Amino acid sequence: MRFGFQNLALAALSGASFALAQQAVPATGEPHHQTVYEDSRVRALDVQIQPGELIPSHRHDADYAWVDDAGIHFSRAGATHSERNHEVIVELLQRQTGPRNVCGEVLAGEYLHCHEPGSEWLGANLEIQFETDQTRVGILRIAPDAKLAVPPADVPPLLIPLEGTEAEVVSRMNGAPAGSSSRRIVKAVEVLRAPADHVSEIRNIGKTTARFLVVEFGGASE
Fold first, then answer.
1. What is the model's pTM?
2. Domain ranges of the chain
3. C-alpha–C-alpha distance, residues 171 and 68, integer Å
4. pLDDT tier at 185 (50, 70, 90 boundaries)?
């Protein structure tokens, strides 16, 4: 009987150890999630998984949007999904209310409320797919050799180049001569956010359409 109790104790201890090992860790502390940008509103993560690797159990402690080959998705804090290599995840650090589809079925089974982006994006190929009362998320496309002036805003939007995008950004202070502009090549998942006192222009230098995840801020509760 003594051995029976010992076996039960060992089994309970083993089960507790396994449960502890399976506890979800914050995504920000999980090495496959690289933080590429963070401010008071958002945290942008780049998922890097080598062939054959498995990601440990983890959690996102804020509502989050992510983009993959299938499009944009949204989950509430605490929800999990099977992440893939090169996924871009944007954790929305402020409380999000009124989530709704716009021009994409991000929330399965919900109606679309498709509308044009703001007039500041006039002429841009921007499709807002999802929004809350605080945030709008969409995909911006720029044709080869085309360029786009990033619209000014009190809270500048985030533009995140997606995999395969080849582009450069030219930026200068408002009112400064064109010759004072800085120019640089941007890489996938490198977050672009022009200061409000700068004029920025993005040019597609590749041979295929450049795609950017756009995250805009503002709304009734801002």
1. 0.83
2. 25-92, 100-217
3. 29
4. very high
